[in-house]
């Protein structure tokens, strides 16, 4: 149980286009999902906390208008990278939290590798 | 703010030898501690976690970690490594504050097993 999927696993796009990444909790409902960004050979940086039915909470330094997060249902959160540029190329990972649990109940997706040409 | 230090960015180890990956955290409050493993181009998989109770925690794949409050450490160990253990290992911490769901990750340690 507690499986989180991401789609797509890899995406290549042209500079200036927008890309949507989906994060789904497959066998549980997640009121809270997290979006991380991982640079090559670096750790995970929390970008934002996504709560179902409300606005996402962004970490300091993360552009809200650039990284649009929508958590419209208890099993789906989306991250849209708008007007992508090469510097947005990265590995994006989501995690989902089981309601009522502590930090130990975060389950991570397999990640999405974004390459912006 | 929380911080997690993984002193070793890369650790090469011969197959069947023991290994210890170091993790130190900075916190004046009680914490939850985690070790995650990341295989190439994949997400994170939870290896083990310390929430409370026994300071020696056993996880999957033969790994264990010991919580040392006085040294603010949570080192990961395995008595005999296998080729399949080659991966990136991340230590993470969450402080036990109400409403704080965030995990703070260390910079990772790349474990390479040498045949």
**Helix and strand succession of chain B?**
EEEEEEEEEEEE
Order of helices and strands of chain A: EEEEEEEEEEE
Task: Say how many strands of chain B there are.
Answer: 12
Bin the strand percentage of chain B.
over 45%
**What is the CA-based Rg of chain A, rounded?**
13 Å
Report the principal-axis shape of chain A: globular
From the helix content, strand content and strand pairing of chain A, which structural class follows? Answer: mainly beta
Characterize the main sheet of chain A: 7 strands, mixed
What is the helix fraction of residues of chain A, given as a range?
A: under 10%
| Portion in beta strands of chain A | over 45%
User: Which residues of chain B form runs of ≥5 with pLDDT under 50?
Assistant: none
Largest two-chain interface: A-B, 24 and 23 residues
Q: Could you state the oligomeric state of the chains shown?
A: heterodimer
Using the CA coordinates, give the radius of gyration of chain B: 14 Å
State the gist of this model:
In chain A, β9 and β10 form a beta hairpin. By secondary structure, chain A is mainly beta. Chain A has no helices and 11 strands.
How would you describe what is shown here?
- The complex is a heterodimer of chains A (117) and B (115).
- Chain A is mainly beta and 117 residues long.
- Chain A has strands at 4-7, 10-13, 19-25, 32-38, 44-51, 57-58, 67-73, 76-81, 90-97, 106-108, 112-116.
- The termini of chain A are far apart.
- The mean pLDDT of chain A is 90.
- Chain B contains no helices and twelve strands.
- In chain B, strands 2, 5, 6, 10, 11 and 12 form a six-stranded mixed beta sheet that branches. In chain B, strands 3-9-8-7 form a four-stranded antiparallel beta sheet, with no helix packed on it. A two-stranded antiparallel ribbon of chain B has the order 1-4.
- In chain B, a hairpin with a 4-residue loop joins strand 8 and strand 9 (73-78).
- Chain B is globular, with a radius of gyration of 14 Å.
- The N and C termini of chain B lie far apart (41 Å).
